[in-house]
């Protein structure tokens, strides 16, 4: 169990599991989508096939009905029969020989029909006059309740096809096809509401439609024929005839389609079996021909296809998993070896080697192996170098300890000598302090005189500098004023010249006003022409109206532009006047003031120069005297400082020597600690294998 948990948490198991999920889930989704599409495709294909079959069945029914109608038309236009009934109508008596001959003829036709005809009859005076079933229907009076086709023939003599009805002779479902004796000519001369002589063919519906409902090439198909009320009137299964009504079945909306459309398809459940059905209505008889196929037939095909797809998917999945297993294993194996190698290195064993073939691999795995090998070599070299450095450090520590011992002895001798020098220097310092006090008083008096002269010189220099600065600023101001004057003058001249283009705007505005007037006039003419054109010119009238509005807006805009242009012209004129006044001020009063200031600054500079010269001479004399005294005082002071510094330095040397001895002792202790660390590092390095 622990081994299984360890394997399930491994990188190999996780990669394999993720890859398997990424393969299995899309394959299952694809299989579901394909299965659904296959099911829909089979359903549509089956529906199209049923639609084609039912269309052929309806055509077949139409051909049969038209054939029987043609046979009836041929019989009523037979000269012999027409002649017989003309004589009958004229004399009112029956020619038995002729009667027997016609009767034998229709009886023979009855036998040749092989059950297609339920009877063949002629009518006369509103009742059956002759039949082909041995006289069983003779004297049957034609009435609307037993013969619903008869009132229609009375009202409109001519060819007819009845709806499905129950035969008054046999009680079976029949369709009566017939025509009046004499054909179209007789139908044209017959009186509406009379009793015309009729030739009728009662067709047995079940026998008539047997060819329609049979499927010799496909026993899984089932075709039935329904009357207007949804009852089955023809079927290959006789138990369904006149006993099954689609209006009472679970037809899932199929029967409602039959009531509202001439063709369609859907589903119906019959005898516990769910069928896919397609129907089409015969335009002559008004019958619905329905062709059905059990849903299980195409579902079996779908299931077999889905099963085949599932088998292919499983096989593909197994092959993919095997290939995936081999690929993942080839990736994980070098990673496992690298992990093992890292674990050994973490324990200090760097002697292991990874196979050369894994180092030559491409991709991230090969890069990982090569990096690990490189890291192992680098670490191994570093450990070897540390071991060598430990040996070197141990030797250096030994030599350093010996050198510090010799230094400590020499420092003790230096300390004794410096103490003797310190005592002599203290005596010299006392003598120099007395001489320094006398020179300091004389130096103070001379410094006072020198400071006064120096301050006078500084004030004179400051006056001279201010005068020069004033003159320079004045010259700069004059130059700048001249430059600005010419720039402003040039800019104003150019601006005034350019401002004259405003007058062109006024001229252009006048032109635009003329254009808007012409545009408005054209729009008015266009509106008049559009009104003349009437309905056809309405669109052009709208365009003309929009153009007139645009012209009015343009006229208002131009008027505003002309008003603004007038204001601009007035502003430019005022600007020109004020600019002329400004230029006159600069060239007149301002230029005279600048000249007067220049002369004043020159006089100020000359006076400042004389004062500076006098103060400079006095300051130079006082500075020479002060320098001589300062040199003497400085010499005495430097002697005292040098003596004091020498004494201090001597004491510091002694103290520093003592500190060096103390520090040497500390360093000796640290060297000993370093030696101990080197010993421990050597012991640590000895634990590694390389």
Automatic annotation (TrEMBL):
<dbReference type="Pfam" id="PF00015">
    <property type="entry name" value="MCPsignal"/>
</dbReference>
<feature type="domain" description="HAMP">
    <location>
        <begin position="329"/>
        <end position="384"/>
    </location>
</feature>
<keyword id="KW-1003">Cell membrane</keyword>
<keyword id="KW-1133">Transmembrane helix</keyword>
<dbReference type="InterPro" id="IPR004089">
    <property type="entry name" value="MCPsignal_dom"/>
</dbReference>
<keyword id="KW-0807">Transducer</keyword>
<feature type="transmembrane region" description="Helical">
    <location>
        <begin position="305"/>
        <end position="328"/>
    </location>
</feature>
<protein>
    <submittedName>
        <fullName>Methyl-accepting chemotaxis protein</fullName>
    </submittedName>
</protein>
<feature type="domain" description="Methyl-accepting transducer">
    <location>
        <begin position="396"/>
        <end position="654"/>
    </location>
</feature>
<dbReference type="InterPro" id="IPR003660">
    <property type="entry name" value="HAMP_dom"/>
</dbReference>
<dbReference type="Pfam" id="PF00672">
    <property type="entry name" value="HAMP"/>
</dbReference>
<keyword id="KW-0472">Membrane</keyword>
<feature type="transmembrane region" description="Helical">
    <location>
        <begin position="12"/>
        <end position="36"/>
    </location>
</feature>
<comment type="similarity">
    <text>Belongs to the methyl-accepting chemotaxis (MCP) protein family.</text>
</comment>
<keyword id="KW-0812">Transmembrane</keyword>
């Amino acid at each position: 169990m622990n081994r299984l948990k360890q394997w399930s948490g491994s990188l190999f198991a996780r990669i394999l599991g993720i890859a398997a999920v990424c393969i299995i889930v899309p394959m299952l989704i694809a299989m579901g989508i394909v299965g659904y599409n296959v099911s829909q495709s089979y359903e549509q294909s089956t529906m199209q096939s049923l639609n084609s079959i039912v269309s052929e069945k309806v055509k077949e029914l139409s051909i049969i009905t038209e054939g029987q109608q043609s046979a009836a038309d041929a019989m009523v236009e037979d000269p012999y029969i027409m002649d017989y009934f003309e004589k009958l109508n004229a004399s009112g008596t029956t020619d038995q020989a002729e009667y027997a001959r016609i009767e034998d003829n229709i009886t023979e036709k009855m036998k040749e029909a092989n059950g297609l005809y339920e009877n063949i009859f002629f009518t006369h005076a509103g009742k059956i006059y002759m039949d082909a079933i041995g006289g069983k229907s003779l004297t049957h009076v034609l009435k609307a309740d037993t013969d619903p086709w008869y009132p229609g023939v009375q009202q409109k003599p001519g060819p007819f096809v009845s709806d499905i009805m129950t035969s008054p002779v046999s009680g079976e479902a029949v369709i009566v096809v017939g025509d009046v004796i004499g054909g179209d000519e007789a139908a044209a001369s017959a009186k509406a509401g009379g009793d015309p002589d009729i030739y009728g063919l009662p067709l047995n519906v079940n026998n008539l439609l047997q060819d329609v409902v049979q499927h010799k090439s496909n026993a899984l198909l089932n075709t039935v024929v329904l009357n207007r009320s949804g009852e089955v009137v023809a079927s290959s299964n006789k138990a369904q005839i006149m006993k099954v009504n689609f209006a009472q079945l679970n037809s899932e909306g199929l029967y409602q389609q039959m009531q509202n459309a001439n063709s369609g398809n859907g589903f119906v459940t019959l005898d516990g079996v769910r069928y896919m059905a397609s129907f089409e209505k015969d335009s002559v008889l008004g019958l619905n021909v329905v062709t059905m196929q059990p849903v299980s037939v195409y579902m079996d095909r779908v299931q077999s296809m889905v099963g085949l797809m599932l088998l292919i998917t499983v096989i593909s999945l197994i092959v993919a998993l095997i290939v995936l297993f081999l690929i993942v294993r080839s990736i994980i194996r070098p990673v496992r070896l690298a992990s093992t190698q890292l674990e050994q290195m973490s324990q200090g064993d760097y002697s292991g080697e990874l196979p050369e073939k894994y180092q030559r691999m491409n991709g991230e795995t090969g890069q990982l192996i090569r990096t690990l090998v490189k890291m192992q070599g680098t670490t191994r070299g570093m450990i070897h170098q540390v071991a060598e450095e430990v040996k070197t450090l141990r030797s250096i520590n030994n030599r350093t300890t010996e050198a510090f011992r010799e230094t400590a002895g020499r420092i003790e001798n230096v300390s004794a000598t410096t103490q003797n020098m310190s005592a002599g220097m203290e005596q010299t310092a006392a003598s120099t302090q007395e001489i320094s006090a006398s020179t300091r008083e004389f130096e103070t008096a001379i410094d006072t005189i020198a400071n006064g002269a120096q301050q006078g010189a500084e004030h004179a220099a400051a006056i001279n500098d201010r005068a020069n600065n004033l003159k320079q600023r004045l010259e700069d101001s004059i130059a700048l004023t001249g430059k600005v004057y010419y720039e402003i003058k040039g800019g104003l001249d150019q601006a005034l010249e350019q401002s004259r283009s405003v007058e062109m705007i006024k001229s252009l505005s006048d032109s635009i006003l003329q254009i808007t007037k012409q545009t408005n006039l054209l729009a008015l003419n266009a509106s008049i022409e559009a009104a003349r054109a009437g309905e056809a010119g309405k669109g052009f009238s709208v365009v003309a109206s929009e153009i007139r509005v645009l012209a009015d807006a343009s006229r208002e805009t131009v008027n505003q532009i002309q008003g603004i242009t007038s204001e601009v012209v007035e502003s430019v004129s005022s600007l020109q006047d004020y600019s002329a006044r400004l230029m006159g001020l600069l060239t007149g009063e301002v230029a005279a003031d600048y000249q007067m200031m220049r002369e004043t600054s020159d006089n100020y500079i000359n006076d400042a120069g004389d004062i500076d010269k006098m103060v400079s001479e006095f300051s130079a004399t006082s500075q020479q005297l002060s320098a001589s005294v300062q040199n003497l005082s400085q010499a005495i002071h430097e002697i005292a400082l040098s003596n004091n510094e020498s004494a201090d330095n001597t004491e510091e040397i002694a103290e520093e020597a003592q500190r060096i001895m103390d520090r040497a002792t500390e360093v000796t202790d640290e060297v000993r600690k370093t030696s101990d660390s080197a010993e421990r590092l050597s012991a640590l390095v000895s634990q590694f294998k390389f």
